[in-house]
Amino acid sequence: MTAAPEEYLVPGTGISFNSLPKVSLHDHLDGGLRPATIIELADALSLELPAGDEFELGEWFEDSADSGSLTSYLATFDVTIAVMQTREGLIRVAREFVNDLTADGVIYGEVRWAPEQHLTKGLTLDEVVEAVQEGIELGTDDARNDGHSIRVGQLVTAMRHADRGLEIAELAVRHRDRGVVGFDIAGAELGFPASRQLEAFDYLAQHYFPVTVHAGEADGLESIRGALFHGRALRLGHGVRIAEDIEIERQDDENTYVTLGLLSQWVKDREIALELSPSSNLQTGAIAAWGDELADHPFDLLYQLGFQVTVNTDNRLMSNTTISRELALLTDAFGYDLSDIEVFQLNAAAATFLPLEDREDLADAIAEGFDEA
């Protein structure tokens, strides 16, 4: 049973953000569990949790993640990953993940997760990918039975501090016709550049397999350069610190005058999508150089300059959020209207790892949904 998400209204209208068709590009499977599910799965595995009540547990995740440090933020995943070690647990988590996306009006999503972190109970890499795919398909069936339509693809992720990149890249390609649509590297960014996984990225390029790379969150411009040069990334996971390569020369009441560096100009001109996650970026300190409020986030600067910005949750559990909530927060901070919200969804649709024709169909569905709103 899917809990009804909190509803958010577009200011000045009776339109619900929740009802608008949306695309989710950056959403971690192990960051999207329901607290009640964690408790049930932990009980079956005799695991001790930091809180036994679902509301208290949800608050614990949000409070623990709100640290200003990506390293501390990532520590909360020890709990969620621990309950995702069995086939049954993976199927349930993936199914509910899709159920919750559907309830938030998402019509296409890409879910990223690291199979190498789910092997402690004896499952193989292929078995965990198959279990997650089974859960995804059950979730899409649930949506269809309820009169909704959603499509979800897996982004198989390698942990950047580990040495299994090539093995995980091979796993992703092996399942490319069975639900896996792309590859990612995640985990501690600072000190673990994309070049460490060069063998994996070479393999993926040789097999024409799309890549997104976490970069520009806990590390700066060099990390982004590495994602583009070594990783051949088609999108940047977060990428918010690309704004460090933008020099603000002066501002007046109506305009901001800037100079773009070579790297930021390249990202803009090539329309390399930025998978921005506003609430998460605040929690991890990714935007500390600009401030500590959502209104300080360089999201609007990047949008106004024509970068391919998209809106994401990163981890719905840790940030206690949904895409609808993120859109509402951005609208409140920057005064966006319905046309801006549509642009963000069309940007995301264009950046998906779907075939061109499917991306065009997705864009049409978004445009139709906004026209009918």
TrEMBL record:
Segments traversing the membrane: none
Entry-linked InterPro entries: A_deaminase_dom, Ado/ade_deaminase, Metal_Hydrolase
The Adenosine deaminase domain, residue ranges: 21-368
GO cellular component, one term: cytosol
Keywords, ordered alphabetically: Hydrolase, Metal-binding, Zinc
Entry keyword annotation includes Membrane: no
Required cofactor(s): Zn(2+)
E.C. numbers: 3.5.4.4
Signal peptide segment: none
GO molecular function annotation: adenosine deaminase activity; metal ion binding
GO biological process: adenosine catabolic process; hypoxanthine salvage; inosine biosynthetic process
Record bears the keyword Metal-binding: yes
Family in the record: Belongs to the metallo-dependent hydrolases superfamily. Adenosine and AMP deaminases family.
NCBIfam families membership: PRK09358.1-2
Protein name (Swiss-Prot/TrEMBL): adenosine deaminase
The species this protein was found in: Herbiconiux ginsengi
The organism's taxonomic lineage, starting at the top: Bacteria, Bacillati, Actinomycetota, Actinomycetes, Micrococcales
